Amino acid sequence: MSILSEISLTSIDWFKHYDYEILHQDNSQYIKPSNSNLVLNYNILSPDKAGVLLNALHIGKMCFFKENDISKEILLFTKNYGPIGFINSFIYNHNYFSSNYVVMRKNPITNELTLSFSEYIKNFFPTINDELPSNDINNSFMKKVIKGDQKHLLFCTSQEFYLLTSKVYSEKIEWIANYFEQLYAFVYASYLNKKCLLEKTSILDINIYQPFDLYQMCQYKNIDPIEYYISSSLTTEITAQSSIIFKPHSLKSIIDFLLSIYSLHEKTPLRICKHCKTAFVGENIRTEFCSPKCRNQYNVYKTRSRKGLNE
After folding, report:
1. Is the predicted pLDDT of residue 62 greater than 90, yes or no?
2. How far is CA 93 from the centre of its chain?
3. With contact defined as beta carbons under 8 Å apart, do 236 and 244 qualify?
4. Can you tell me the distance from the alpha carbon of 97 to that of 135, in angstroms, rounded to the nearest whole number?
5. Tens digits of per-residue pLDDT, 250-260?
6. Spatial separation of the C-alpha atoms in residues 191 and 215, rounded to whole Å
7. 52: enclosing H helix or E strand
8. CA-CA distance, 198 to 179, in Å (whole number)?
9. What is the pTM of this model?
10. Which of 1-15, 154-168, 171-185 has the lowest mean pLDDT?
11. Mean pLDDT for the chain?
12. First to last CA, the chain
């Protein structure tokens, strides 16, 4: 039995600005805080423990199946939960303030795996384009970044958080959509993988939009896609007393952590609705539909399909 499946979570602290808006800059759309300096610290697990994860997966499903314009959905998500925190999400040297370079794993922000401190930071502050950033907190660029009410800096545990909580910190909608879509793709791939094993068919026989390389790689390595995602993206410290010390450096790390909890939970696992393909937390491992409505619609379509074959 997995240690993660037995964890009972009650609180994870995060923050959000009072309001957010869409910024159009250099032919790109960003999400940034509005002009207010008010920052709210809150428990992201209250009132719904899985809420942030399921909302991310909902937008990911929209991206995956090419549904609608997701800009407004992502703006609403950020208003509810705060920034994803990409600035701290893909880097190996998290204390990059003490270095001249930032070393990263593969990410949606840049194709480069190593950037200078200045080049990296500029990606997140498109409205400050007349000066170069420096890892000196007294640099004129940095002064603009943290200008305003500094009360929210009480939340910060390091200099790196100064940047993330800034009212001019911005994230491209494209980055967020890419992350959410990847998140959903792995959950959906896991669902399809289990479905094909149950039905003894090949996952490549399913004629839908899908990242074939992901499925083939996971089949070749004989691993479940969702387990691969968790192992490659999540870092936690498990103590000798089987407790997990989790201090989030980004909202992405919280979402990935919750993904691991609900994917490996044996009593209330993360599921994909058999009818509408929405991700949801099941009442038990046998739950197949996210709602009675979806169950009824699925049965109606199935009955009609059988009648059509018999005619």
Report:
1. yes
2. 21
3. yes
4. 5
5. 899 889 888 87
6. 11
7. helix 51-64
8. 29
9. 0.82
10. 1-15
11. 77
12. 49
